[in-house]
């Protein structure tokens, strides 16, 4: 399969297969969501989500902040080159070039993702809820906006608002689910003001052990994520079927939040990190039948 981008650039089957295999291996739920999208847009979605995975792991791949920043500099120049149809010899960059058909991908969203993750290099904990939401908007929200652009979905107000809400919900759910991994890296995404409100210290957040204050703080954030999911779904009547098909990550967030609630909002419960499997497949099939998300 070849994907044609700007200036006639063609992405090789090898580059696309690399992206598909990367997403399948490291984010099987996003892989399943992509398979539920129209076949014509899947190459672009896998390219975008491979980019997301590669840049998300920069922080954890090195203990040297300066090295992490150098990698983000490389990614900035790589994105710029890919969007003009001149990617370096890198399969993700080449797949991005193919996804940028007709100049339809906005560079601003890529750079928001990179800036958020570079800002994250020296951050142990968000100061407050607003900072956490900004991070989710710039990462998960930007990724959803790019997915919609790559699919040719019109960027009207309801669609942009729904993408923003789903991005916040997905971002929060993903960060809560990854709390154990973040703690191992000496970081927590539970904001300081939320933790303090429930009497949870940073030491508790990084301990890897559940506590009542920690669970209460996680419950507050889970409620925030659910509120964003409800706000997005309230906009469903105003969204095109194409837009709804690309907001399926909302289902992943919902199932993660349900599992978190079932385990008493213990973000360190090992079950939280197990694949969603059949429940996700069933939900995606239901949504495809009823054009929902």
TrEMBL record:
Ribonucleoprotein in keyword set: no
Database matches in SUPFAM superfamilies: Terpenoid synthases
Pfam families associated with the record: SQS_PSY
Record key words, sorted: Carotenoid biosynthesis
Substrates-to-products reaction catalysed: 2 (2E,6E,10E)-geranylgeranyl diphosphate = 15-cis-phytoene + 2 diphosphate
Residues annotated as transmembrane: none
Gene Ontology biological-process entries: carotenoid biosynthetic process
EC id: 2.5.1.32
UniProt-recorded name of the protein: 15-cis-phytoene synthase
InterPro entries: Isoprenoid_synthase_dom_sf, Squ/phyt_synthse
Enzyme class label: transferase
Gene3D superfamilies the UniProt entry points to: Farnesyl Diphosphate Synthase
